[in-house]
Write a structure and sequence with these properties.
Chain lengths: 388, 291, 343
């Protein structure tokens, strides 16, 4: 059996080696996507995958992309990072060296985006993260300068934290705020901290700053403590699967205050999971489905037709990432990783589904507006714009 | 004072659920000396069955409970028959790894079928009573009451019925019990059925209290319930109940009186301290080892 | 099956002195580990996977020492990995000057390992009194405490993780540490000390009575095991260039556990095979998408059902075993194992 074991190992290794050989199709443009299909956020990965497929289908149905003299169809390669940082890195490496992709879209969550971005940066391959809002994804860890090959399609956390804090103070007239966030998740913690900073800088007081750990479901202890602190508003920068529970448990404790949230609320799933309990609350996000521009409406319609569900923010941002990439490829004029990257860096303005993006020299992060949405009936309704 | 009472109520609710799941672990351990690491995922299956029966079959509360219990019991018995029984003679670790594998399989299979978290529409009226500053919801009452009732019934089964006697006999001495006419396979299957159905009930109650379910919900809850079972003394049914409530209480009270970021740190540190002073758990007995 | 072995043995005996096949293989491997990255004749993705394999081998061999050879049930290995990863990263990013980091890398790795070893010493103490499943809880709790502690320490980045490491881990280093860990554990196990380790697994009370200082043995075993786990963590951190507490959670510990038990407890060759198969299978099954993670555990369960002692069981590759043991090794299975296995 030990010989059998060795043989088996040898076989597997050969599979690995051979898998990389002999795939040469110069007639297509190969794009890679790294998504969280399994692991701790499969819903995010699923949305990303759907939007990616839709984007590519639309491109190919229109005949492909015109690069130079020829029309090229786009070939999509989707890899799963299984919710693990090392898998994220190996997925990126595989797409780059074995699948020989032109560019990579994804991963979405910052903790998976960073390892993949390191590989992309070293291999000089363009990577666009649709959803990673942590500033560090596009910054070189040692020098603090922006990375050359890593871009994103969304705004960053510090901006959002400030937006919500100002909204709470200006529109909701809140002076005392309580925050409940996931201590084990960088997104939640990042926004919570910026919110606190902005709120206190502008004269407010954060009376409770409570935490929980990812996958917790019971928040009764923290909510009871927050209720005791008597806030005017509660900030919940948490994922749409957690927020309904938090709000419902608060109601059960007769804890009645306005709740506000961040772009992690921006999925239709929130409405499904929350029902009437979320009526009348606000959150900041990337785009408003009801006052969206014609391009956005077309996208929403197409998504609904293809998949039967409304697109969430991950889907919209993935679609925009593809839009950016498409423009870069066409303008680059050559199927070459460097050309595509340089073309993307030259883009100054892009009108996407999620709003207008402005890129400035030296930064790979777009300047975008946020919108404040209100939950009314069973829909998200536009409430206000929040410009940078 | 009312703040404390409110938190105590919260602790009882959380503790009841941990206790129910811990019972499943402890029953299987008592009879097979095996840690069924798939138990947390069976609890998850119970919650999903609850979701299916409420949404698609539109069953009322009691019927949903019965469906979930039966469903998880069936699954538990099937797993025992196909994955654990063949390994009864093998080293214990193989059964443990198999259990881990079964758990992973259940999680990812459910995920492959539905990656999005699901919402269970509430099927119990949302009544809340307020006594001064304390609010008690019907939900809390149902959860706590039902758990206690089930635990009492279990205790009675184990102590007063023939089946219970057979279970105790097998956990006492596995080789001699069949010689005395105890149908070992049947009793083991029955133990699994009862243990997992309790996990299923926990799933339903969990779905009631925290109506958002996803395929990975069983992982942390499962490990915490396992810890409860060990704290109470693994293999001891009353110990599991006590362990569950202790863990629930410590979790809630730590958050209530200390900065909530320290919760996991303090809970596990306290746990370690407890095991230092009572290495076999609260109600556990040091096993005599013959040399 | 014996004939190729005999043939190989004959071949070995006919080589000139000093040219033992083991040494040749090692030298060749070492040389290859430099040649491959320099020429890239194996693509970078496979190189990355090879490095993952090496790190996983170190992890599973070190866990095997405690779980397999000593028969304990440690569930917190990822915690030791985390400590090594963070300590090494902090040192190479904050302590070493940037230009020196490359040369001082082994020092950072050793420091990471040493930090883990120190903590491993602490974890050894509960193991004196508790056994089996209770020790499992202690180690499980320990793993969770480490994760939770890191999340609360802002200076280490908390949940946002720690960045800034250069990609200092490369194939030669991984090769070096993998070989070192296997060599070290192998020598440990076949020494007099190692007999003590095995005797604790078989019957702790009897071994105490026979004069084995079980406390010392346990302490040393935990220290060695956690040292190498820390080394693996340090290598891992400098490969991904980014670590956060979530990487070292219970799921990671479970992964390592699976590698060890899959390969066969009490067998170094088994740990190596388990690590290789697990890592490679995970990568090779990528085309399956979501169903990859459904198939993997199924394969695991089936493997357990048909080979309950793991792929290698208690047997060992003959080139690991010192000649004196070759005759008696592998022929007898311990009765205890058949009855109730290690923990």
């Amino acid at each position: 059996m030990k010989k059998g074991g060795l043989l088996f190992c040898g076989l597997l290794m050969t599979c690995l080696l051979v898998a990389g050989c002999g795939e040469k199709s110069p007639s297509t443009i190969r794009v890679g996507v790294i998504a969280e299909l399994t692991g701790d956020m499969p819903a995010v990965g699923e949305s990303c995958k759907k939007a990616a497929r839709l984007a590519v289908k639309q491109i190919n149905d229109a005949g492909g992309l015109q690069v130079g003299e020829k029309q090229y169809k786009v070939e999509l390669f989707i890899e799963d990072n299984a919710g693990k940082a090392d898998q994220s890195a190996s997925a990126a490496q595989k797409l780059i060296t074995q699948k020989k992709v032109l560019a990579i879209i994804g991963p979405n969550a910052t903790r998976y985006a960073i390892p993949a971005s390191e590989i992309a940066e070293t291999s000089k391959v363009l990577l666009i993260s649709p959803w990673s809002t942590n500033p560090r994804t596009t910054l070189d860890a040692k020098t603090g300068a922006p990375k050359k090959y890593v871009f994103r399609a969304c705004f960053i956390d510090p901006f959002q934290g400030r937006v919500v804090a100002r909204f709470a103070m200006d529109s909701l007239k809140a002076r005392r705020a309580a925050v409940l966030y996931d201590v084990a998740s960088d997104y939640n913690k990042g926004i919570a901290e910026v919110f606190k900073e902005t709120f206190e800088q502008n004269g407010g007081k954060v009376v409770a700053f409570e935490t929980y750990t990812t996958n917790d479901r019971d928040f009764s202890a923290q909510l009871t403590k927050m209720k005791k602190a008597d806030p005017d508003v509660v900030f919940l920068p948490n994922y749409y699967s957690e927020v309904p529970l938090q709000i419902q448990q608060a109601k059960r404790l007769a804890f009645k205050v306005p709740f506000v949230g961040s772009d992690s609320w921006g999925s239709q799933e929130l409405l499904k999971l929350c029902g009437k309990d979320c009526e009348g609350y606000y959150f900041s996000t990337h785009y408003a489905p009801d006052t969206a521009a014609p391009a956005a409406l077309k996208f929403i319609e197409a998504f609904k037709t293809s998949y039967g569900v409304m697109p969430d923010d991950v889907a919209a941002l993935t679609y925009d990432s593809f839009g950016l990439l498409k423009q870069a490829i066409v303008e680059g004029g050559k199927i070459d990783r460097q050309y595509v990257r340089d073309a993307l860096a030259k883009i100054k303005k892009y009108e996407g589904v999620t709003g207008d993006m402005q890129f400035v020299e030296g930064s790979s992060d777009p300047i975008k507006s946020a919108v404040i949405l209100k939950i009314e009936g069973d829909r998200f309704v536009f409430f206000a714009n929040a410009k940078p | 004072m009312s703040y404390l009472l409110q938190q105590v109520l919260n602790a009882l609710q959380l503790g009841s659920i941990y206790a129910l799941i811990a019972l499943g672990y402890t029953m299987v351990y008592g009879i097979l000396t095996m840690i069924n690491f798939a138990h947390g995922d069976l609890f998850m299956v119970g919650a999903f069955l609850c979701f299916l029966s409420v949404l698609f079959l539109k069953l009322p509360f009691v019927a949903t409970l019965v469906v979930s219990m039966l469903g998880t019991a069936l699954l538990g018995v099937t797993i025992e028959r196909f994955a654990y029984k063949p390994l009864r003679g093998a080293p214990r670790v193989s059964a443990i790894i198999t259990a881990l594998g079964v758990g992973l399989f259940l999680e990812n299979f459910t995920l492959a079928l539905s990656p999005y978290p699901k919402h269970i529409p509430s099927f119990i009226p949302n009544t809340i009573w307020t006594l001064g500053e304390i609010s008690i919801s019907l939900l809390q009452v149902v959860v706590i009451a039902l758990s206690i009732v089930l635990m009492v019934i279990l205790d009675l089964i184990v102590r007063r019925t023939l089946l219970g006697m057979a279970m105790r006999a097998i956990s006492w001495d596995k080789t001699v019990a069949p010689l005395m006419g105890v149908p070992v396979d049947f009793v083991i299957s029955a133990t699994f059925a009862i243990g997992t159905s309790l996990g299923g009930v926990a799933g339903v109650l969990y779905g009631l209290c925290y109506p958002v379910i996803d395929p990975y919900m069983g992982i942390m809850v499962g490990w915490k319930a396992f810890i409860s079972a060990v704290v109470g003394g693994i293999g001891n049914i009353r110990g599991a109940m006590i362990g569950g409530y202790i863990l629930g209480a410590v979790e809630i009270l730590v958050v209530a009186f200390l900065p909530s970021t320290y919760r996991d740190l303090v809970v596990f540190a306290l746990l370690l301290v407890l095991l230092v002073f009572r290495p076999y758990g609260i109600l556990g007995k040091a096993t005599v080892q013959k040399v | 099956m014996a004939y190729p072995g005999k043939g190989l043995a004959l071949l070995c005996r006919s080589l000139p002195k000093g040219w033992e096949p083991g040494r040749i293989l090692l030298a060749a491997g070492f040389a290859l580990s430099f040649i491959i990255p320099a020429t890239d004749f194996i693509d970078q993705y496979v190189q990355l996977v090879l490095m993952y394999i090496g790190i996983n081998i170190i992890l599973s061999v070190s866990l095997n020492l405690v779980n397999g050879y000593m028969g304990e049930f440690s569930l917190g290995h990822a915690g030791f990995m985390a400590i090594g990863a963070y300590v090494a990263s902090v040192i190479s990013v904050r302590v070493f000057p940037a230009w020196a980091a490359v040369w001082l890398f082994p020092a950072a790795v050793v420091a990471g390992g040493a930090a883990s070893a120190l903590v491993g010493l602490l974890v050894a103490f509960p193991s004196f009194k508790t056994r089996g499943d209770y020790l499992a809880i202690v180690t499980l709790a320990f793993g969770m405490i480490v994760k939770s502690a890191i999340e609360n320490i802002g200076a280490l980045g908390g949940p946002r993780g720690f960045l800034g490491m250069d990609r200092l881990t490369n194939l030669p280093w991984v090769f070096f540490w993998t070989v070192l860990s296997v060599w070290f554990v192998r020598n440990l196990v076949y020494s007099r000390f190692g007999r003590g380790v095995l005797s604790i697994r078989e019957d702790e009370i009897a071994s105490e009575l026979s004069g084995v200082d079980t406390r010392r043995v346990k302490m040393l075993a935990f220290v060695v095991s956690s040292f190498f786990a820390g080394v693996a963590g340090a290598l891992f951190a400098h490969l991904l260039q980014f670590i956060n507490p979530r990487v070292f959670d219970i799921i990671k510990s479970t992964d390592i556990l699976i590698m060890v038990y899959l390969g066969g407890i009490g067998s170094l060759g088994g740990s190596i095979i388990g690590a290789v198969i697990y890592t490679v299978l995970l990568e090779v099954l990528r085309p399956l998408g979501v169903w990859r993670m459904v198939l993997m555990p199924l394969v695991l369960v089936l493997l357990m059902l048909y080979r309950p002692k793991g792929i290698m069981g208690l047997r060992e590759f003959s080139w690991f075993v010192p000649r004196a043991d070759l005759f008696s090794r592998g022929l007898r299975h311990s009765k205890k194992d058949l009855a109730d296995g290690a923990p």
